[in-house]
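User: Okay, second chain of the day. Same drill as before: sequence in, structure tokens out.
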Amino acid sequence: MRHSQEDIARELHTEMRRRFKSDVTFIDIQGLGVHWHCTAERGSRECKVRCISGRNPEYLTSFRQTSEGLAWSRSLSRDATLAAISDWLDENSLETLYKNHPIIDSKKRQLENIRKSTLECEPCLTDSVESILFHHGCDNYTLKFRANDRLCKVYYCGKDELPVAEFEWDKCRLFKYQPSDNNILATIIKHWVCDAVMPSQMKSEFPWLVIDELADYYEAGNPIEGEFLMSWQSVDQFYDNPLFTSGKDVKALIATMRSKGFDRTLRAGTSLWTLIVSRSRRHGLQRGQPSIQFWFLEKGMDIYNFMEEKPSMDNEPVPQIQLPEIKYCNEIEDLLNQLQSKPIV
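Assistant: Same drill. Structure tokens below.
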């Protein structure tokens, strides 16, 4: 049975008032709609519990001192959460809380153990690779091993027991897996990050790794072309969606563009059903980056030219080309040629 966040917060608030009877403890509840939290304060110590609804209620708690966040916990157990809060308000040290309450900074501590184990398995990484634990906010952390343009990121996703390890070359992810053996992970990090081993050799030494096709382009020295080609492949698959009634015509349009080589010089992407082509090196078009947008209508399409500064939100864009059908034409080719002359940004 699902409980609303308000119900979960009110039950937690009641239990806090029952357990923490000290006159110097301030207990509060605040919320609106689907965002509710309870707060317990004593002296310079504070805990704020965000209540998350679901099949089983979840409690996300911050442990603070003099307004500085020091630790986090996430637990399905209200009792475990309240026990940790009690020890914190009683001014126990963070080390004591770590010892007595596994829920506190659990993922952070697991990542720290992975870093320690990895560096012990491959001591050479200590001097040749930068290893940092990056805090994204709340209880979200990423362990990074970096050297030059190679990177390994290790993090926990959702409630998965095993972490995810992603491997990048020049900020582009080429493969990932979920490590269960830190010795093997350390060896892979050494090969990829420290020794800058090529993807083909990684495939040979670790045949169970699933390495993206894009890695072949990186190894051949054509990373941008590979990224562009993969973007068109992804967009073409996107328009296979049976909910989009014009998919067949749009895929034909894309096929014609690709046959003329624009998939090697332009990046393709989508926004809702709109097709966008640009000179953006990375996914995620930013304001000011030149692009062309194809808006597909019930009949035909409108084509917008954003090769100059993109208009502000106050100005309604005006299509440069309006066509009664979704079909390639010389006007489209002229626009694409103009676009591919722009610098890659």
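Residues 46 and 68 are 9 Å apart (CA to CA).

User: Thanks, on to the next one.
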